């Protein structure tokens, strides 16, 4: 919900949490985490209050809305821009992970955009599933958040890891570059099975014009074993993600327009097709992401064991 603070004339976002759906302690955990976090790529908590039926978290408003909506509305998407956006997300994850906090619900709907000075700033939001993993942690996530973006360890009911977030970022990267979902199948069970089997590919129809370096970056993150995925700090060193200088023709930037970036040897300079993202966004709007993990865990284990 969008609201206006009367005392500051500032537009804010209000997250209403139904008291019937979440225990007070769960909401307080999210509030405590947010109160201690301060990073330019994380949405800030401004205030909290309570009504008869809801807990309300007052958050800073990202003026450009959700990440994928922003990409589709601007068009002219290139790998250079994708790399720039991913750096912001990785900076947020690097900060969170330095506090041993796993977000555990990284998906397009929880990534928002704000325009600051000459370029967009990408921010993470919604810390309802976030948890601090103090070693030796063997925290098992109780809900299957977004099956499409969840790492195999979440789906199988195994202990989560900070690099569970890096898997999710790999799926987000795949989606942004292609407009397709790497593991999505006709049923939730089949989707989860594809994730656990690492059953994905790069169909040429969807990845036309996407560089080998971009595909390699996705493969780096979509590794089955959490310990084999690189941490956020290492990802920020990846050649494909290195920031390029702004091209000379952009010396006077329009503050409302994303910056044009000069070509790089690591990227294909072609514009990426965002038309499939429109139907991706529409499908996600009508989808219920929360479903108890136990209902499919036994099915997955039996199917996976039968193939070993």
From TrEMBL:
PROSITE patterns noted in UniProt: PROTEIN_KINASE_DOM, PROTEIN_KINASE_ST
Which intervals hold domain Protein kinase? 1-241
Entry annotated with the keyword Transferase: yes
Record key words, sorted: ATP-binding, Kinase, Nucleotide-binding, Serine/threonine-protein kinase, Transferase
State one Pfam family annotation.
Pkinase
What InterPro entries does this protein map onto?
A: Kinase-like_dom_sf, Prot_kinase_dom, Ser/Thr_kinase_AS
Where does the record place Polar residues bias?
244-255
Which Gene Ontology molecular-function terms are recorded?
ATP binding; protein serine/threonine kinase activity
Q: Which GO terms describe its cellular component?
A: nucleus
- According to the UniProt record, where is the region Disordered? 243-268
Question: What's a BP term from Gene Ontology annotated to this protein?
Answer: positive regulation of apoptotic process
Q: Could you tell me the superkingdom of the organism this chain comes from?
A: Eukaryota
**What is the protein name for this chain?**
Protein kinase domain-containing protein
Organism source for this protein? Answer: Neolamprologus brichardi
């Amino acid at each position: 919900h969008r609201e206006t603070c009367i005392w500051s004339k500032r537009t804010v976002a209000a997250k209403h949490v139904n008291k019937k759906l979440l225990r007070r302690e769960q909401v307080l955990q999210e509030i405590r985490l947010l109160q201690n976090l301060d990073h330019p790529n994380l949405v800030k908590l401004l205030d909290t209050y309570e009504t008869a039926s809801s807990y309300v978290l007052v958050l800073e408003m990202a003026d450009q809305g959700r990440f994928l909506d922003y990409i589709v509305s601007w068009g002219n998407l290139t790998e250079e821009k994708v790399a720039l956006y991913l750096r912001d997300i990785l900076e947020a994850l690097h900060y969170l992970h330095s506090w041993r906090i796993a977000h555990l619900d990284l998906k397009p709907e929880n990534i928002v955009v704000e325009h600051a000075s000459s370029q967009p700033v990408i921010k993470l939001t919604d810390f309802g599933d976030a948890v601090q993993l103090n070693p030796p942690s063997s925290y098992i996530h109780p809900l299957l958040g977004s099956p499409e973006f969840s790492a195999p360890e979440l789906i199988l009911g195994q202990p989560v890891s900070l690099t569970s977030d890096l898997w999710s970022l790999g799926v987000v990267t795949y989606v942004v570059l292609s407009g397709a979902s790497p593991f999505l199948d006709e049923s939730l069970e089949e989707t989860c099975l594809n994730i656990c089997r690492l059953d994905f590919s790069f169909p040429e129809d969807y990845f036309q014009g996407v560089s080998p370096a971009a595909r390699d970056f996705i493969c780096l993150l979509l590794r089955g074993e959490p310990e084999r995925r690189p941490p956020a700090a290492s990802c920020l060193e990846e050649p494909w993600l290195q920031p390029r200088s702004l091209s000379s023709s952009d010396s006077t930037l329009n503050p409302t327009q994303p910056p044009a970036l000069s070509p790089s040897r690591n990227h294909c300079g072609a514009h990426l097709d965002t038309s499939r993202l429109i139907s991706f966004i529409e499908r996600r709007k009508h989808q219920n992401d929360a479903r108890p993990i136990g209902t499919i865990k036994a099915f997955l284990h039996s199917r996976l064991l039968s193939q070993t």
